[in-house]
Amino acid sequence: MKAVCWHGKNDVRVENVPDPSILNPRDAILKITSTAICGSDLHLYDGYIPTMQKGDILGHEFMGEVVDKGPEVKNLNKGDRVVIPFTIACGHCFFCNRDMWSLCDNSIPDGKLVEKAYGHTPSGLFGYSHLLGGYAGGQAQYVRVPFADTAALKIPEGLTDKQVLFLTDIFPTGYQAAEHCNIQPGDTVAIWGCGPVGQFAIRSAYMLGAERVIAIDRVPERLAMAREGKAETINYEEIDAGEALKEMTGGMGPDSCIDAVGLEAHGTGLDAFYDKAKQSLRLETDRPTALRQAIVACRKGGTLSIPGVYGGFVDKFPLGALFSKGLTVKTGQTHVHKYLKPLLDRIQNGDIDPTFVITHEMSLEEAPQGYEIFKHKRDNCIKIVLNP
User: Fold this and answer.
1) So what's the architecture of 2-169+334-386 in CATH?
2) I need a surface site. Which of 154, 165, 219, 386 has the fewest CB within 10 A?
3) DSSP secondary structure string, 298-362?
4) How confident is the model at residue 97 (pLDDT cuts 50, 70, 90)?
5) Cβ of 151: how many Cβ atoms within 10 Å?
6) How far apart are CA 16 and CA 141, in angstroms?
7) 214 in helix, strand or coil?
């Protein structure tokens, strides 16, 4: 089969690799019908996530048709059309039983390395380094799905791939980020980053009852899409985001702040240049520019929600502000399994049409070009769907 394989920083290639096979009775094999390039894939592409190996298959947003299954997968049949969460979860451990699917105890085969780094093991992820399980990803023609009896959501007739593909990651991620804010009537939510997750966070915040959403970015087409979602916008290259938020909220600050940027945040201040220099020398793993701004901007007693991916250590973290303002912090990989059916219902009810975020469709063979377009935000690119 053909698959998008990682070969180093800024180097992905479409190669012929062996087809996947059933390894466990709870496995299924999917023929991929749609997959996508995610913003967090760029952290791999840019070389910031350790333990990648040459030839690793990328991709964690995918859906397809069941073509084979293990004997313990009783709830699926060959030919079923399904979406798969990017987080891999067993369905039976302490955390899965409490709807904390991205914290599954049993989906990383050898968790010694990540346990040493983080204290405990999170769930495994598709196509996202050997630190997180070494699983082959879904930017391919076929993929093996572990714990398929727990993971797969069958898609009803009448819905296109493009309508449901983002149930795999970015829609639940944006929704969980907004849900973490515990939005109350009249609340103002500020969102750093108008990429795909930020766009879904905007619309989710309104679905959950926010009165105002203010979105911060620098890319014109992303800001325009945010305004289409009824957000007020701030271009941080034109005005100071913190001062603007104070003025827009009467000096109070937003009730909740969402960092939908993560470890490769850009900025214009001295701290942004400091972070970029230290990260390039590997003296700091993550650039927390947006995170710092969100902590300082949030109103006293407010909530900080962090769906943006962070991998290691940050410098100059304003812990004093976080403490003194009494902020609540909610973060973590998305518990995608928890949201699959409720958000499918949202789509079917017409509350949201997730296709709004798609700007580019390409073949699997064009993936290397797609990564470059997406990374450098060329051609007004916000989200790329790949068709194997």
Assistant:
1) Alpha-Beta Complex (3.90)
2) 154
3) SPTT-EEEE-S---S--SS--HHHHHHTT-EEEE-S--HHHHHHHHHHHHHTTS--GGGG--EEE
4) very high
5) 26
6) 10
7) strand
Neighbours of 68 (CB within 10 A): 17
Average pLDDT, integer, range 362-371: 98
- b/e burial code for range 92-126 (CB count within 10 A of at least 16 → b): ebebbeeebbbbbbbbbeebebbeeeeeebbbbbb
170-331 maps to CATH 3.40.50.720:
yes
DSSP at 210: -
- Is residue 28 within 8 A of residue 145, CB to CB? The reply is yes
Instruction: Show me where the domains of the chain are located.
Output: 2-169+334-386, 170-331
Task: Please give the mean pLDDT across all residues of the chain.
Answer: 96
Alpha-carbon separation of residue 84 from 100, 154, 250, 337, 348 (angstroms): 16, 9, 44, 9, 18
b/e per residue 285-303 (b: at least 16 CB within 10 A): bbbbbbbbbbbbbbbeebb
CA distance 379 to 374: 9
Q: How confident is the model at residue 143 (pLDDT cuts 50, 70, 90)?
A: very high
Q: Which residues are CB-contacts of 371 (< 8 A; sequence separation ≥ 6)?
A: 12, 37, 41, 42, 45
Give the Cα separation of 39 and 35 in Å (integer).
Answer: 13
pLDDT higher than threshold 80 for residue 282: no
Confidence category of residue 280, pLDDT binned at 50, 70, 90 = confident
Condensed to tens digits (0 to 9), the pLDDT of residues 316-342 reads 889 999 999 999 999 999 999 999 999
Q: Answer whether residue 263 shows pLDDT above 90.
A: no
Length of the chain: 388
Angle, nearest 10°, between helix axes 170-179 and 196-207?
50
Give the pLDDT band (50/70/90) at residue 285.
confident
Q: Report how far residue 273's alpha carbon sits from residue 276's, in angstroms, rounded to the nearest whole number.
A: 5
User: What burial letters (b/e) apply to 8-30, b meaning 16+ CB within 10 Å?
Assistant: eeeebebeebeebebeeebbbbb
Confidence of residue 290 (pLDDT cuts 50, 70, 90): very high
Which band of pLDDT confidence, cut at 50, 70 and 90, is reported for residue 303? very high
